[in-house]
Amino acid sequence: MNLQPKKGNFMRLLTLTRRSAIALAIAAPITLPAAIALAEPGAWSDEPVRIIVTFPPGGTSDLVARLLAKHLDENFGQKAVVDNRPGAAGTVAADYIQQQDPDGTALMIANNAPFTIAPTQFESLPYDPMADFTHIAYIGASAPGLFVKPDSGITTVAEFVDAAKANSVSYGSSGVGSISHILGKAVDAKLGIETLHVPYQGSAPAIQDFRAGVLDTFYDMVAQNSEMIEDGEAVAIAIAASERFPGVPDVPTFTEQGYDIVIENWVGLSGPAGIDPATAEKIRETTLAVFALPEVTAALEDLGITHKAMSGAEYTDFVKKQIDVWKPLIVAAGVQGK
Amino acid sequence: MDILANFMGGLATVLQPENLLYCFVGVFLGTFIGVLPGIGSMAAIAMILPLSFYLDPTAALVMIAGVYYGAEYGGSIASILMNIPGTPSSSITCIDGYPMAQSGRAGVALFVTSIASFGGGIIGMIVMAVLSPALASLALSFGPAEYFSVILLGLIAASAVSNGGAVKGIAMVIAGLMLGTVGIDLTTGDLRFTLGIPELRDGVNLVIVAMGLFGVGELIASIRANRAGRGQQEIDYSQFYPTRAEWRASIGPIWRGGIIGSFFGALPGTGQTVASAVGYAVEKKVSKNAANFGKGAVEGVVVPESANNSATQTAFIPTLTLGVPGSASMAMVIGALMIHGITPGPRVLTDHPDLFWGLVASFLVGNIMLLILNIPLIGIWVKLLQVPYKLMYPTIIVLICIGVYSLNNNVFDIWLTLLFGVIGYLMRMFRFEPAPLLIGFVLGPMMEEQMRRAMLLSRGDPMVFLERPISGALIAVTVCVLIFGLWSTLYGRRRSRRLAALAASE
Fold first, then answer.
1. Torsion of CA A45, A47, A49, A50, to 10 degrees
2. Is residue A11 part of a domain?
3. Which among A90, B101, B194, B216 is placed 20 to 30 Å from A48, CA to CA?
């Protein structure tokens, strides 16, 4: 039995909602295709583009998608709508995208979960992360780090190693198989220590328990917790990025403290396999132009994302390499083949 | 006076035009849904949940809360006029409300229920404003062991004081616990009972279960059972205002109902239905007019309405200060806040004072709006009951489908809702209550998560639940509740049988 949503069902539902006035009020979030503008420079389709997000509204991926959609429309005359399809660690959205027409009107904000974690973590996937997709444009990455209590007196990774060897240390993560869990396992392996993993549903409840004194440490995106660092509620002793982050310049990297740990939480733009190379290139150029706008650059920085321009081939190669980078980490975390 | 200053700040927030508008939308929709027999506030919350994602968090919360307590106002209308409860908790109102209507006093009954609801709502609001800050500061030091004990108390309380047959009630709680285990195991990442369906990896969505069991299931049952306007009693508007004696008879019950309702509303696991049932039973014991209960006593409609309305306000106390929802509706409130990046818990009061105090103040504003909607505008709602169900129910089903679809933009969820609708209908046919199932479903996964976390942190030592003082005290209270439950089952057979018959008629 195939239970996957088909495009036909979605369109039928849209027409249905259009018929009923009450339904319209409820369905307000579904933007209806209004007057369709003719293609302008930078636009690649007369049809509105749907940007699928693998999370519910409100997270980083969603905000990136909304930034992109807004500026595609305002600056390049390309109508775009954000469509949230959360579920099963992003694999529901990825599976949906691979079934769409490769005409550039259905794209997704790609990230680690469905492309680099799921292929190793899940026993079977309805798609191939490389063959079933056109990876179009890299957007940027943020990086997680290690947070400890201010009163622990720990300020460097070396001191953390000593503390973890002397006493059992616990850490909170945003879930089994999440980036923060995998970073925790990578740190254990590189530092030769054993810490106690305590999974939560998302980073917010983990941070709440950290503040309540339940947890000794936690891993989370560093830039997003800059307020806690400034308020002196937590000390970020290291960030798992290749270089220090502009938003939090005082947090040293693991690498500069002598431990080679780099884990990036990247986002990019991908679509179904078979998008015509010329169209893909046009999408990439317009997308990069959006992320070069000063307003957008500033918004990305607030989200803790460092933007980098890559060619389409470089991005495709990047995703492929990321799968290999993550594989041993996921195996080490003990969550493969579920 | 801190509380008063905070409350005034909240009032300023809620009086902003946007928040006022959404407060009105909420209470209006709540009354609308409450009036219709068969579906309660849960269906309405599920339908507006997707809309709330696009609002400011305070406006979203104010609107959802408005639906929640608005439904309790509307629920009494069908109970009084047609002897069909609009919401499960207003089934108690039928007992005296319908006889009042039959004797030509429908107008008085509707008037006093509105006043009682208002009084109960305000009592609940005051309890929330006074109690929440204290509870939140206590909860700042809560760890997994304490949360586990609070939830355990809630679950035990729900099954011990629930008003159905004990065995069926416990069976439903357990069914809910089992349903809650579907999806990824949070501690190990293993898949449990997903049947190879990717959509089930994240478990079954609460909105789907609630919409299926309560929305679709109730609708199917209502189509069979009810006809629009059937047996509806006329309102004689010349006899709308209560007499001085009736006013005087109402004041005591409003207070007692409000206080009993506040208590059961704040206790996780119990809710408006238990509050109004207990309120009615207590009032019958203490009232001088006890002989007239069941024959159209004013006190008999005042108490349950005051109790269920105060319970809807205090239900927000554990939800916002602990992050522990007492009911499925409250779990949806938590979901709505999480979408906005706000984790309900002891930090809400300090990190988002606008949101918390705005909500408290909105109770005052919303209850005043409801008073206006339910006294001068009562005629609209009475007319609504005469709209043929063949037009009304298909519309609601369509709205439910849209609400469920827009959660994940996934058609699979609609099919799953339908499946739960059929299950809900069958449960109703065989007299199984869906409410305990839903409580097990909501609290079960949270309890498991906290228990395993506490065990991880204690390195496998189960004594942690007894050694930590707050947790130990909560466990002790739980044991007392359990003993009380067993005692009343053994010695109160007759009483529980009567309550069971009452629950079955819901």
1. -150
2. no
3. A90
